[in-house]
Amino acid sequence: MAVVSAEPSTQFYSDRCTSYNTLGTIIDRFVQQFEEIIQSYVRFHLAAWTILGLELLAIILFSTFLLHSAWLAGTVALFFLTLFSYFMLRVYFQAQKPEQFLELREEYLAECKKNLRFQEGIAEHHTALASACGKLASALQGKEATYYKPPALFQFMNRWIEKFSAWWHWHDFHKLKELLLMASVEEHIKLVRCSPTSLELHAALANAYVMLSALYLSAAKLESENRPYTPSSGFIELMRNRFRKAAERAIEEFKILNEYAPQDPWVHSQLAYSYRDLQMPQEEIKEYETIMQLRPDDKDTFYKLGVLYFEQGLNAKGLAVYEGLKKAHYQKADQLIHYYGAYKELDS
After folding, report:
1. Contact predicate 165/148, CB 8 Å
2. Phi, psi of 69 (to 5 degrees)
3. 11 and 131, same domain (yes or no)
4. 247, 206 Cβ separation under 8 angstroms
5. Is 227 a member of any domain?
6. Does 127 map to a domain?
7. Which residues contact 10 (CB under 8 A, 6 or more apart)?
8. Burial annotation 179-198 (CB, 10 A radius, 16+ → b, else e)
9. Residue 158 pLDDT
C-alpha cells in the first residue's frame, strides 16, 4: 500500500497554476467528446426514422399499384425488417453506451493525471484528481435541457425543445456525472485507507459522498418539481435508494469526525443536514441540540431547532425556543410561531 505524503509536493505547487489553467481546456475537450458520442446516437435514430418514414410513405403513395402486384408483400416485409433491425440495434447501442461513458471517464482521468504529473500516494495529487472529476460533473450540470437551441425566429418553441432535449439526453448526462462523482469518492477512499486517522481526509470523503448523494437526491425530486423531464417511477425509486446509501456513507464519515472532534459545531451541522435529507427528525434534533450546547448564542440554529420541535409535535419546547428568540429580539422569531400546529398538518 502506498504511503500518503504529509508534505505538499514541491513539483505539485510549481505546476499548480499551469495545471489548473490547462484543466479548463481538458474539460471543454471532453465535454465535446461526450457530445459527439451523444450526437452519434442521435444521427442513428434520425437515419432509422427517416428510412422507416420513407418506406411507409412509399407504401401509402403506391398502395394502389402495390395491391395489384407481387411487390406488396416484399415492400411490407422490407418495412418490418427495417423496423426489427432498428429495435435490435437500439438495444445493442443502449447496452454499449454505459461502456462508452466509462471509457470516456477513464480517458479523462488519464489526461488529468498526465496534466497533474500524478504520483500515486501524494495527497495533493489524489485531491486534485478528485476535484477534476467534480469540475467536469459541474460543467455538465443543466446541459441536458439546453442541448438544442431553436433559431431566433422560433424562440416561441424553446419550452418544447427544452423538454424534448431533456427527455432525450437526461439519462446520458446523469450517468456520466454519476461515474465522475463515484471516481471522486474512490480517490478520497484511497487517501483514507493510507491515512485512516486524518480528520481532513475523512471530511473530504464525507463531502464527496454528500456531492454524490445530492446528485441522486436531485434525480429523486424530479417527480415533484416542475422540470422539463421526469424519469419513470422505477428509476426515481432507484435514485432514492442510492441517495439513502450515499447519505448513510456520508453520515458514517461525519460520525468518525465526531469521535475525533466532538466539540466541532461544523461536524454536528453536517450531520443535521444529512439527517434532514434522510428524513430522520429525531436524530436531526439531537444534533442541533448539541450545537446549541457548543454555541448557545447561535440564533439561526436555535430557530431551526424551534421549527423541528413544532414539526414533531414538541410544542412546549417549541414555545420555549420562541420565547427565547423574542427576548433576544431575533428578526425571524415571529415567523417561528407560524409552525405551531405543523405536526398535525404533516400528519394529515
Report:
1. yes
2. -145, 170
3. yes
4. no
5. yes
6. yes
7. none
8. bbbebbbebbbbbbebeeeb
9. 74
Quote the DSSP letter at residue 3.
P
The DSSP line for 180-208 is HHHHHHHHHHHHHHHSTT-HHHHHHHHHH
Closest C-alpha to 175, from 99, 240, 241, 244: 99
User: What SS3 state is found at 230?
Assistant: coil
Collapsed DSSP state (helix, strand, coil) of residue 104: helix
Q: Which three cell numbers stand for residue 311?
A: 414539526
Q: Considering the chain, what is the average pLDDT of its residues?
A: 84
User: Could you say which of 288, 312, 333 is where a domain stops?
Assistant: 288
Q: How far is CA 261 from CA 200, 201, 202, 311, in A?
A: 11, 14, 12, 30
Distance CA 275, CA 266 (A): 14
Instruction: Say whether both 282 and 136 belong to one domain.
Output: no
Among residues 187, 73, 168, which one has the least CA distance to residue 129? Answer: 187
Q: What is the C-alpha separation between 104 and 137, in angstroms, rounded?
A: 13
Are 20 and 117 within one domain?
yes
Spatial separation of the C-alpha atoms in residues 33 and 342, rounded to whole Å? 50
Same-domain check for residues 40 and 172: yes
**3 touches 194 (CB < 8 A):** yes
Domain count, the chain: 3
Instruction: Residue 264: give the domain boundaries.
Output: 196-288
Cα gap 5→121, rounded to integer Å? 6
DSSP 122: B
User: Half-sphere exposure of residue 317, counting CA atoms within 13 Å on the CB side?
Assistant: 15
44 and 176 share a domain? yes
Give the tens place of pLDDT for each residue, 61-109. 777 666 666 666 777 788 889 999 989 998 998 888 999 999 999 999 9
